[in-house]
Design a protein that fits this description.
The longest helix is centred in the N-terminal third of the chain and has 30 residues, at 17-46. The protein is 29% helix and 42% strand. It contains 2 helices and 6 strands. A 3-stranded antiparallel sheet has the order 1-2-5, with no helix packed on it. It folds into 2 domains: 3-46; 50-129, Immunoglobulin-like, CATH 2.60.40. InterPro entries: DUF4307.
Amino acid sequence: MTTEQMLDERYGRATSGRKRLGLGIAIALGAVATLLLGWAVYGNTVDSVDSDSTGFEVIDEHAVTLRFQVTAVPGRDISCVIEAQDEDFGIVGWRVVSFAGSDATSREFEESIPTTALATTGFVNSCWVS
C-alpha cells in the first residue's frame, strides 16, 4: 500500500462503493421529498378559495343580509357556508350557498340568512371548490 493510499484511508478521503451508494440514496430521497412538497403546495393552491365578509344588515329577528367577496380559481364552481350569530355567539341561522364558475377571479355576493332569533352578526364560515 502506498503512502497516498494509507493517508486517504486514514483521513476518509477514499470513496468506497458504500459511500457512493449512500450518497445516491440520500440524493434520491431528497429529490422525492422535494417533488412531494411541490405537489402538496400546488394541490393546495389550485383549489383554494378565499372569502371575506364585507358587511351585514340585520333585517329583523328572522333574517340577516350578508355581503361578501369570494376569490377562487376562474371557471370552478364554489360553495360557501354563511352563518348568523346572536350576542352570545350562538348560531341562530346558517345556509349553504353555491355559485357557478365564472371568468372572474374575485366576485361579490349578497345573500339572505334565515334566522330563528335576533342575530347580531353575519359572516362567511367557510368556502370550498365544489
